[in-house]
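Q: For a teaching handout, I want to show students what a protein-ligand complex looks like in token form. Below are the inputs, and the small molecule is PRP. Please produce the holo structure.
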Amino acid sequence: MSLHIIEHPIIRERLTHIRSVDSDTAAFRHALHDISRLMCFEVTKDLETNPCTVKTPLKKTEGHSLTRPIVLVPILRAGVGLMNGFADILTEASVGYIGLYRDEETHQPHRYYCKMPPNIAEADVILIDPMLATGGSAADAVDELKSEGATQIRFACLIAAPEGVEAFSKRHPDIEIYTAALDEHLNENAYIVPGLGDAGDRYFGT
Ligand code: PRP
Ligand code: URA
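A: Here is the structure, written as tokens, with PRP included.
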């Protein structure tokens, strides 16, 4: 299993706002946007580059270009909130969407939408969803990405439950997970404890 827990004082501070039951939609969005930009740095740290030549106004020198195109894939709905900071920085990235919702009783994911860019098979793909709870949604999304030909995939989330990390890693041992926090456990409704509640509802004010 490859689990990266991203340690950063600003992320820890913003995550406190996000967790707080007293934060309103605006405070939640603002903090998630900040974390998203900071996480982008860590999640992309080992992307491959190729050497190239660049001409400055003074002379030719060595530069670097990304080896592969980047595709961001947020899982609807809440993934959109965590994606925005990545998109701020990776302005060249294409964006694919996977729509999934969790059945409230069985906790199984149901896919209702999928639209990927044509270059998915050659790309470095960053799958994004704030919550890794049972792991079912993220694992189903990776099934879809692999069936579309993606081979270079990493998963970025905000909060992970140990149960979700284990289940996801069993189904997809080749995929690295990046998270800002590893929480205690799932409750009887498969919500992450202490968590933040329902990420989609809190981000969209529903
Ligand atoms: C949330 C979250 C993940 C999923 C995680 O989405 O954004 O997609 O739950 O749970 P899992 O690891 O147990 O599958 P939700 O189903 O609430 O949909 P929403 O984003 O549309 O609110
Ligand atoms: N989905 C959420 O939004 N929150 C959780 O704690 C679990 C699944």
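A: Two things your students might notice: The pocket of uracil (ligand 2) is lined by residues 131, 133, 191-192, 195, 198-200 (CB under 6 Å). The domain at 3-204 is CATH 3.40.50.2020 (Rossmann fold).
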